[in-house]
Amino acid sequence: MDNKRDILSLLRSVAAGEATPEDALLELKLSPFEDLGYAKVDYHRSVRQGNAEVIYGAGKTPEQISGIVAAMHNRGCGNILITRIGLEAAEFVSRTAELDYHADARLAVAWPRTDTPSLGHIVVATGGTSDLPVAEEAALTAEAMGNRVTRLYDVGVAGLHRLLSKLDVLMSARCVVAVAGMEGALASVVGGLVNCPVIAVPTSVGYGASFHGLSALLSMLNSCASGSAVVNIDNGFGAGYLASMINQMEGLPSQEQHKEASQP
C-alpha cells in the first residue's frame, strides 16, 4: 500500500466482498516499513503525509542509496527524491535505476513518472545567480511533488527593478520561495508585495560577515513582512516541500468529501 488511494481501494474491495478481511489485514501488515538492516524504509509516509519518503543522500554510501531506491521501486514507488547526492553516487544508482540527476542542485529523481500533475503555481525567486543550487533544489522538489513552478532568478534588491518587472508573476503565485544570501533582504521585499505565503531560504552565499548564511537567516527571522516563514540555511528541499503542501491545500479532500465519494 503506497498511498491513500490504494488503501481506499482495498477497503472498498472488502466492503464489496471481493476480498476477505484477512487478505486486507495481511496486505496492511506488509505495508508500514521494510527493514534493510541499514535503513527502515517507511512505506506509509505517503499515506500519512501525501508524499513518499525522501532519501537524504549525504552520509549514505552509493550501495545504501541504491538499495533503498530498489526497495521503494519494488513496492511501486515512483518519483523517488534523493537529496544531497553527489555525481559518483548518482552514477552508481543509475546502473540499476532510471535516474534524472541534477548536478547543480545535487538532487536526483529515481524512476521519474511522466504522469506527474502540474498543479497551482509556486514561484521560486533568488537574490543572485550564486543562489541557484539551493533554489533548484526547492524548484525540483516542488515539481516532483506535482506542482507548477516558475523560476525568477537573479532578481535581488541590488537591482530592484528586475523584481518589480515580474510583479504579475509574483501576484499569480499561491506560494513564493525567496532564496537569498548576503543580507537576505529579498524575502522581506517579496513579503511586502504578495498576498500569499512566502518561504524564506537563507543561503551560505556572501562575504565573511555573512557568517556562512547566519546573517541572512537572522535578517529573515527578523523580517517585518507578514506572512513569511523561514527554513534553515541552504534548505531548498524543506522550502520546496512546504511550498508544495501550501500550494495543494485547497485540493485536499476533507473527511466529509471522502465519505460522500465512497457512497454509491
UniProtKB/TrEMBL annotation:
Pfam families: AIRC (PF00731). The lineage of its organism: Bacteria, Bacillati, Bacillota, Clostridia, Eubacteriales. PANTHER family: PHOSPHORIBOSYLAMINOIMIDAZOLE CARBOXYLASE-RELATED, SLL1489 PROTEIN. GO terms for molecular function: hydrolase activity. Residues 120-252 form the PurE domain. This is PurE domain-containing protein. GO terms for biological process: 'de novo' IMP biosynthetic process. It comes from Pseudoflavonifractor capillosus ATCC 29799. It comes from the Bacteria.
